[in-house]
UniProtKB/TrEMBL annotation:
<dbReference type="InterPro" id="IPR001902">
    <property type="entry name" value="SLC26A/SulP_fam"/>
</dbReference>
<dbReference type="GO" id="GO:0015706">
    <property type="term" value="P:nitrate transmembrane transport"/>
</dbReference>
<dbReference type="InterPro" id="IPR036513">
    <property type="entry name" value="STAS_dom_sf"/>
</dbReference>
<dbReference type="GO" id="GO:0015116">
    <property type="term" value="F:sulfate transmembrane transporter activity"/>
</dbReference>
<dbReference type="GO" id="GO:0006590">
    <property type="term" value="P:thyroid hormone generation"/>
</dbReference>
<keyword id="KW-0406">Ion transport</keyword>
<comment type="similarity">
    <text>Belongs to the SLC26A/SulP transporter (TC 2.A.53) family.</text>
</comment>
<keyword id="KW-0039">Anion exchange</keyword>
<dbReference type="Pfam" id="PF01740">
    <property type="entry name" value="STAS"/>
</dbReference>
<dbReference type="GO" id="GO:0005254">
    <property type="term" value="F:chloride channel activity"/>
</dbReference>
<dbReference type="GO" id="GO:0015705">
    <property type="term" value="P:iodide transport"/>
</dbReference>
<keyword id="KW-1003">Cell membrane</keyword>
<feature type="transmembrane region" description="Helical">
    <location>
        <begin position="379"/>
        <end position="397"/>
    </location>
</feature>
<dbReference type="InterPro" id="IPR011547">
    <property type="entry name" value="SLC26A/SulP_dom"/>
</dbReference>
<keyword id="KW-0967">Endosome</keyword>
<dbReference type="GO" id="GO:0019531">
    <property type="term" value="F:oxalate transmembrane transporter activity"/>
</dbReference>
<dbReference type="GO" id="GO:0140900">
    <property type="term" value="F:chloride:bicarbonate antiporter activity"/>
</dbReference>
Length: 662
């Protein structure tokens, strides 16, 4: 008997630990999303829009690659490599269909700190002897890209480690106000770093705490050294870029292909500089020699990893936070989902693998992602097609960019950050929705300006957690109201032919960034279960909880109630009497729930809302103005549903939002 038990136990144990072929396939599809979408790619419907988007994306990748490489204090050609390899790797491992990974202003600015600290400008060596095998670049340039590649490698390792530790589940701490303030502050830093090129000034590299203010102090002290030619060319470039991009945005529905003004400006400026010899005549700084081809891979410098760990953590956190926000935004816009942990893996491998090909740190950029939106990209194929054109530039067109003025590249960087800089407009929104989030935004921005993007990000997260800890002890949890009290206040019609199901859910905790996602997930699960079942419960014990409010039933189960509802229509009443306080993330999630339910033909009504909650929701989202959605009580909401002359079932539900322990 004992032997039989042991044998049975060993068989069960072997079944538990023997991986099945189907399990391996599912794991591969989960970790290699390209295996999931590539076999089902629709050539007829998607290839043309993806090709057009890929061409336009390639223009942005090339121009931003050159510009952000200079921002990272390395040779421009390495920006072209950084526009190629990370995009390919993310297309394989990432789930964001409209996420254009490549060079990124914020990560370039952070890595520049390590480059300038370990290989300062004073160590420049113009000799190219012994480096002919590496594209003919000098020792100085190779040392600098070695530092940038080391930052990229270590940042990628950190991101992969976060994936292994499943830290994607804590990304709810990266609230929208914190991300918005951090990226706006970092964009301000980037613009400040380009002032010397816009003005044509020679300026030493300035960084560290309050470095933002020291740069402008130096500019005003040396205002006489501004080159008028560079200033005028910068102003002209900015005006042209802004004007044409605004026209493209305004008439994008009437024209099939937008004008690639960045590419046109680069060609025109390079040609003008070549014809007039601006480099020697006016002393304008130009990009210089850009070698052809891609060098063989080389491992990044491992001996300096300990020296760049601060910048690596900054790149890992800031790059992931900005990229995840774009991925989640695109997923929400186009109705698909992204995995926070998988994004850690995708961006981590993009940085690790690309570091062997002389690439600077990478991440997704707002401008490129917005470009994919506007050009109608369907899948990641658009990014892969853009890589083909980037390769053409690397092997054929790159050397022709020798005469491109640096002030024009700086202008492209500044205008490309417009999407981040105009986030200042969000301040009004935060003030109207939640003044505490407004305060978090302002303080995070100030910390980012005074110190760095990673410091501002950490401060914003800590500040958000501290405020929630201070607010939660005052939260009161209310019990769900007795459904019998509602029965006396509601009268029903007996001649209606349609049965409408009403589900009442009581929110009995604060709705903040800690539990907003869980609230949305639980609510959608409840709605999906109702749609899937499409049938009233006929169990006697459950019938006591689900009261049929019509004169025929009188609270008892009957055959008509137990049958499926033909032409059924559902309504959802959210009792917000227990929602003691909320933040911007909570309001955003409530509006998202309303819009999602509207798409599912589920009417949403909110009862017992405070004046501040109604004001915040109306200000945040475009709610349906034709139908009232806010009511003084649950009974009033049900009466409004009843006015449509439906029979209906009231289903009470207590939704206790679990808050994560801090």
């Amino acid at each position: 008997m004992t032997g039989a038990k042991r044998k049975k136990k060993s068989v069960l144990w072997s079944k538990m630990h023997t991986p099945h072929c189907e399990d391996i396939k599912q794991w591969c599809r989960r970790r290699l999303p390209i295996l999931e979408w590539a076999p089902h790619y629709n050539l007829k419907e998607n290839l043309l829009p993806d090709t057009v988007s890929g061409i336009m994306l390639a223009v942005q990748q090339v121009t931003q690659g050159l510009a952000f490489a200079m921002l990272s204090s390395v040779h421009p050609v390495f920006g072209l490599y950084g526009s190629l390899f990370p995009a390919i790797i993310y297309a394989i491992f990432g789930r964001g269909r409209h996420v254009a990974t490549g060079t990124f202003a914020l990560t370039s600015l952070i890595s520049a700190n390590a480059v300038e600290r370990l290989v300062p400008q004073s160590a420049q060596n113009l000799s190219t002897e012994g480096n002919a095998s590496v594209l003919g670049l000098s020792d100085f340039e190779m040392q600098r890209i070695g530092v940038a590649a080391a930052v990229s490698f270590l940042a990628g390792v950190i991101q992969v480690a976060m994936f292994v530790l499943q830290l994607g589940s804590v990304t709810f701490l990266l609230t929208e106000p914190v991300i918005s303030a951090m990226t706006t502050g970092a964009a301000t830093h980037v613009v400040t770093s380009q002032v010397k090129y816009l003005l044509g000034m020679k300026m030493p590299y300035i960084s560290g705490p309050l470095g933002f203010f020291y740069i402008y102090a130096y500019v005003f002290e040396n205002i006489k050294s501004v080159r008028l030619e560079a200033l005028l060319l910068s102003l002209l470039s900015i005006v042209v870029l802004v004007l044409v991009k605004e026209l493209n945005e305004q008439f994008k529905r009437k024209i099939k292909v937008v004008l690639p003004v960045d590419l046109v400006l680069i060609i025109a400026a390079s040609f003008a500089c070549y014809c007039t010899n601006m480099e020697n005549t006016y002393g304008l700084e130009v990009v210089g020699h850009i070698p052809k081809g891609i060098p063989p891979p080389r491992a990044p410098r491992m001996d300096i990893l300990s020296a760049v760990i601060t910048e690596a953590f900054g790149v890992a956190l800031v790059g992931y936070a900005a990229s995840l926000a774009l991925a989640q935004g695109s997923a929400k816009k186009f109705k698909y989902s992204v995995d926070d942990n998988q994004e850690f893996l995708a961006h981590g491998l993009s940085n690790v693998i690309s570091s062997f090909f002389f690439c600077i740190p990478s991440a997704a950029a707002m401008g490129r992602t917005a470009g994919l939106y506007s050009t109608g990209a369907k899948t990641q194929v658009a990014c892969l097609i853009s890589c083909i054109f980037v390769l053409i530039v690397i092997y054929a067109i790159g050397p022709l960019l020798y005469w491109l003025p640096m002030c024009v590249l700086a202008s492209i960087i500044v205008v490309g950050l417009k999407g981040m800089l105009i986030q200042f407009r969000d301040l009004k929104k935060y003030w109207n929705v939640d003044k505490i989030d407004w305060g978090i935004w302002v303080s995070t921005y100030i910390f980012t300006i005074c110190f760095a993007a990673n410091v501002g990000l950490l401060f914003g997260v800590v500040c958000t957690i501290a405020i929630v800890i201070g607010r939660f002890p005052r939260a009161k949890t209310l019990r769900i109201k007795n459904m019998k009290e509602m029965e006396f206040k509601v009268k029903t019609e007996t001649d209606s032919e349609t049965l409408q199901q009403v589900k009442i859910i009581s929110i009995n905790n604060p709705l903040v960034f800690l539990n907003a996602k869980k609230f949305h997930m639980d609510l959608m699960n409840i709605i999906q279960k109702e749609n899937a079942s499409n049938q009233l419960l006929d169990d006697i014990s459950k019938c006591e909880q689900n009261t049929l409010l019509n004169s025929l039933s009188n609270g008892n189960c009957n055959e008509e109630a137990s049958q499926s509802c033909p032409n059924d229509k559902c309504s959802l009443v959210l009792d917000c009497s227990g929602l003691t306080f909320f933040d911007y993330s909570g309001v955003s999630m409530l509006v998202e729930v309303y819009m999602d339910c509207k798409d599912r033909s589920v009417d949403v009504l909110l009862a017992h809302c405070t004046a501040s909650l109604m004001k915040a929701m109306q200000y945040y989202g475009n709610l349906d103005s034709e139908k009232p959605i806010f009511f003084e009580s649950v009974s009033a909401a049900i009466s409004n549903i009843h006015s449509n002359k439906f029979q209906y079932v009231v289903n009470s539900c207590f939704l206790d939002l679990e808050t994560m322990s801090l």
